[in-house]
Amino acid sequence: MDIDVLRWLKDIWTYELFQTGKASISLSTLVFMAVSITFLIFIAKRLKKITATKILQKYNLDVGITQSIATIVQYTIVAIGLMVIVQSSGIDLSALGILVGALGVGIGFGLQNITSNFISGIIILFERPIKVGDRVEMGDIIGNISHISARATTVVTNDNISIIVPNSEFINSKVINWSLNNKRIRLNFLVGVSYKEDPEKIRRLLLHVAEGHLGVMKNPASDVLFDDFGDSSLVFNLRVWTEQYADKPKVLKSELFYEIFRLFKEEGVEIPFPQRDLHIKGWPPLQEGALPKIGS
């Protein structure tokens, strides 16, 4: 009885399920492939971690480059391992050539965007036009890069909103990187005052506000440009350098404007608002108690 059971199990284990070319696929083949692929993925993940934390860490590379190299190592191991497993299972890959080619064409059309983003991700990770921590502006998206993956890049705004941007957007679109070289940036703030004010006095007051703010760098020094003769005001451009507020320029602008307003009020500097004078011509003079006729 036991011999019959063992023979039955052996028959099931070696039973031919289907054929690919000259190769016979049985239950044992499928189990072997499943176990081998699971083990391969486990080994690939372990090697990726070792590559990133043990090997590449010695070279003090950037986190983005380290992760990209480790990811490529993982994908390469998986690709080579899959070919070895399939060949070891007795499956002739040449027999699947036509099928794989046909599927490749169909998948290629359907995965054009994914492929484009993947290649763009590799370009970003090696050419380094952007990196984790950079302050970027692209269209109406402004924020810090928190993560770069093979397909997309995560940008976190000042409101702590994470925006997932396809990598191809960073390659094909115009991107402003505020911190490509370093986080030191110059900001420009326009300030308007009345025409009766002394420009030298305004320059002195604006520089006093800038130099007194802890977030404004002393070197390079701030300066003030006489920017324009506006319709209702003299326009000055306060230019300041900062590193601390590179990620939040509007906060610096608000703090400076609060202090400028306080100082202008204290010094009696008039901040004008737009005014218009309306002159009506051609209207007949009115006699006392009379109303004009429409159309006259």
CATH architecture of the largest domain: Orthogonal Bundle
CATH class of the largest domain: Mainly Alpha
Instruction: Work out the helicity level.
Output: 40-55%
Low-confidence regions? none
- Looking at the structure, the CATH topology of the largest domain is Helix Hairpins
Overall 3D geometry? Answer: elongated
Task: List the strand order in the largest sheet.
Answer: 6-5-4-3-7
Let me know the largest β-sheet. 5 strands, antiparallel
Number of DSSP helical runs: 8
Please indicate the count of domains. Answer: 3
Number of strands: 10
Q: Calculate the mean pLDDT score and round it.
A: 81
Instruction: State the end-to-end distance.
Output: 122 Å
Q: How would you describe this structure to a colleague?
A:
The chain is an alpha+beta fold. It has three domains: 99 residues, Orthogonal Bundle (Helix Hairpins); 50 residues, SH3 type barrels (Roll); 83 residues, Alpha-Beta Plaits (2-Layer Sandwich). Helix content is 46%, strand content 20%. The strands form three sheets. The chain has a five-stranded antiparallel sheet with strand order 6-5-4-3-7. Strands 8-10-9 form a three-stranded antiparallel sheet, with helices on one face. Helix 2 packs antiparallel against helix 3.
Helices and strands in order, then pairings?
Elements lengths: L1 H12 L2 E5 L2 E4 H29 L7 H26 L8 H14 L1 H16 L7 E4 L2 E8 L3 E5 L5 E5 H6 L3 E2 L7 E9 L5 H13 L11 E7 L4 E9 L6 H19 L29
Antiparallel strand pairs: 1-2, 3-4, 3-7, 4-5, 5-6, 8-10, 9-10
Summarize the structure.
This protein has 296 residues and is an alpha+beta fold. 46% of the residues lie in helices and 20% in strands.
